[in-house]
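Hi support team,

I've been running sequence recovery on a batch of backbones for a student project. Most finish fine, but this one hangs at about 90% for roughly twenty minutes before it completes. I'm not sure whether the input is malformed or the queue is just slow. I've pasted the structure tokens below so you can try to reproduce it. Let me know if you need the job ID as well.

Thanks,
M.K.
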């Protein structure tokens, strides 16, 4: 009397449900990635470009020292003072309003980004210069 085992284990794996899940995840990530907008600063670096630079006479030069103090065209100023100056510059020059940000070589990134972020929020063009006291190593 031969007893046969009727419960055979199948070595095959059904992939149809897995592919459905993969396609649903792919569609989900494609849709959500198009909705997300990057939060970045609109930064213009000095150099060659096709559009002419803003007039130099109207530019406000914001210098940032190593200890985090600000100067506007050589005069010491607070962050709130820079904000007021940008507001008046925006009223006068409208879309042509621009500032030049000139940090010291050892200035903290937070102080530089604070000015660039303020310019971005007020829709003022900001041009970042090479840090003063910076020596490039070859």
């Amino acid at each position: 009397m031969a007893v046969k085992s009727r419960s055979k284990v199948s070595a095959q794996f059904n992939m149809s449900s897995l592919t459905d899940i993969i396609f649903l995840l792919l569609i989900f990530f494609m849709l959500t990635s198009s909705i997300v907008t990057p939060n970045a600063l609109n930064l213009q670096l000095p150099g060659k470009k096709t559009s002419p630079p803003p007039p130099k006479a109207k530019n406000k030069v914001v210098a940032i020292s190593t200890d985090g103090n600000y100067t506007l065209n050589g005069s010491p100023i607070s962050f709130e003072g820079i904000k007021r100056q940008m507001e008046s510059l925006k009223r006068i020059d409208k879309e042509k309003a621009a500032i030049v940000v000139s940090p010291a070589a050892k200035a903290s990134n937070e102080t530089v980004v604070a000015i660039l972020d303020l310019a971005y929020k007020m829709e003022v063009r900001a041009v970042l210069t090479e840090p003063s006291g910076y020596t490039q190593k070859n």
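--
Follow-up from support: It reproduced on our side and the slowdown came from queue contention, not your input. The radius of gyration is 29 Å. No action needed from you.
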